[in-house]
Structure prediction request, 365 residues.
Amino acid sequence: MKIPFIDLKAQYELHKDEINKEVLGVLESTQFILGPQVSKLENSLTNFTSSKHAIACSSGTDALLLALMAFDIKAGDEVITTPFTFIATAEAISLVGATAVFVDINEKTYNIDPNLLEEKITPKTRAIIPVSLYGQPSDMDEINLIAKKYGITVIEDGCQSFGASYKGKKSCNLSDIGCTSFFPSKPLGCYGDGGAVFTNDDILAKKLRTLANHGQEERYKHKYIGINGRLDAIQAAILNVKIKYFKNEVTKREKIGARYNELLKDSGVIPPFIHNNRTSVFAQYSIRHKNRDDLASKLNQAGIPTAVHYPISLHQQEAFANLGYKTGDFPVSEKVSSEIMSLPMSPYLTKEQQNLIIENIRNFS
Ligand SMILES: Cc1ncc(COP(=O)(O)O)c(C=O)c1O
Prediction:
């Protein structure tokens, strides 16, 4: 049995006729950038998250960049985030010229530890970017409260958590701004790059939309230095089909995650911990084991693909050498990055495939 890590093919096969028809419609219309497909998607995104505004954009990275630009965050400013995330989170901070300040993670959730936040806040701190890693929102109430106390902004990096909820509210609508990614392998993915920014603030929404279109409010009248951050209509058309089935896919992901958790709980690995006041969309289903590399190679031999998200903490990356951190600065992040590994996860992972994965893990000790 060959198990795919993420089964994009099964999903495409299921909705192929509808997707092909919508993509062909865009080709016929020749409206390739923004336009009615993008507006329709933004409508669905606001309905889904109950956020007042959704601004579709070119990627999750650009969503983060736009959020930072909308708050005029720049050189001399500091932005707090986690060292245990995909590089794009901190990359966006560096791209606007600000300084990324890392705060270690909680060992159970792998999300930023709110108890360590205040000691890193300085007069230069402008924002906090908590990442809802693997699909589970961070401790947003605690983080929002601290941010309010110091008058700083909270930008949720929800690039892995679109579809998850926190105390009944949807991820990406849990703070001043939420950002997500529609990269193909994300829970809601398109067939190229795409993303979105969410806010309930009218002024901010207008600025975000303008920034994503070269700072242009009217044709060839540029209010700000912006970026080419627009979403193309083909990607929006694909998402407009996929979003109809998304709730159902999220339920399937939750069920598979819960089944994995139940059957792996005394197997020698550490399954993900999900708070009972929030849900995860399991963008990744990630477990920990002291002999992670041996376990991974045993699974790979049995035809089970695995991946490591993420093997090196950001403070140990060459790209961030200028920040002056050293090994040992974020012990939890370093420990988790040496033990973590992700298992196959998709709404279309069959029980038979799940059983084979679980059996191989249980036999490893
Ligand atoms: C946590 C996180 N932040 C940001 C991004 C960047 O998103 P994108 O690949 O759409 O630019 C990703 C996705 O890869 C991510 O996982």
